[in-house]
Amino acid sequence: MASVASTYARAFADVVFAAKLDANRAIAGLREIERLLTESADLRRIWENPAVPADQKRKLLDAIVQREGIDKEVRNLVAVLIDHRRIAFLPRIVEQVGREIDARLGLAEAQISSARALGDPEKRALEAQIEKVTGKKVRATYGLDASLLGGAVVRVGSTIYDGSVKGQLEKMKEAISS
User: Fold this and answer.
1) Are 78 and 61 in contact (CB under 8 A)?
2) What is the DSSP string of 92-132?
3) Mean of pLDDT values over 36-53
4) If DSSP states are collapsed to H, E and C, what string results for 4-54?
5) Sign, Cα dihedral of 86, 87, 89, 92
6) Percentage of the residues of the chain whose pLDDT score is greater than 90
7) CATH of the structural domain 2-103, one choice from 1.10.520, 1.20.1090, 2.60.120, 1.10.3470
């Protein structure tokens, strides 16, 4: 299943860059169709039903694309998914497209948890430090975790940078016990 999503995601990312599309707009269009599909059981039933003729499915897609102002390339990807009975993979494909485009643009997604709300100067300084360490431009999301006591924990991909008081206390505990 993951390979299906990555195959379509890589192909769509190729189209985005070859056609010089606005990557954010393309992803937003995919997310809008994903949202509509998630919220409408009727739409899902029509697009997933092999008894419904393909041209009727595409007409419905075209009406949605026109109403929402979605790019032609996004429409084409969704049409291919409908035609090949892969529309159920759309949520995974959308997620994978985001990752693929971020990787090609040299962006890293960072999740930052801190014991207290950080001010804008602190956020900028922390993001600059993460960019320096990763060598990538950072898109950060912030959350609060009072159990950290102080400092922050940063997750970039599968790597965790723990600069929290709680983390430091655990390291000292391990050092003392060994």
Assistant:
1) yes
2) HHHHHHHHHHHHHHTEEEEEEEESSPPPHHHHHHHHHHHHH
3) 94
4) HHHHHHHHHHHHHHHCCCCHHHHHHHHHHHHHHHHHCHHHHHHHHCCCCCH
5) positive
6) 71
7) 1.10.520
Domain ranges of the chain: 2-103, 106-177
Task: Specify whether the CB–CB gap between 112 and 126 falls below 8 A.
Answer: yes
Helix, coil or strand: residue 59: helix
Q: Which residues touch 56 (CB under 8 Å, ≥6 apart)? A: 46
Give the span between the Cα atoms of 133 and 112, in whole angstroms. Answer: 15
For residue 2, pLDDT over 80 is answered with: no
**Which residue reads 């195959």 in tokens?**
7
pTM of the model: 0.73
Q: Which band of pLDDT confidence, cut at 50, 70 and 90, is reported for residue 150? A: confident
The span from the CA of 81 to the CA of 88, in Å, is: 8
For the stretch 105-134, pLDDT in tens is 888 889 999 989 999 999 999 999 999 988
Contact 107, 141 (CB under 8 A): no
Residue identified by tokens 């804008």 is 120
Q: Element (H or E) spanning 141, and its range? A: strand 137-144
Q: What is the pLDDT of residues 64-87, one digit of tens each?
A: 999 999 999 999 999 999 999 999
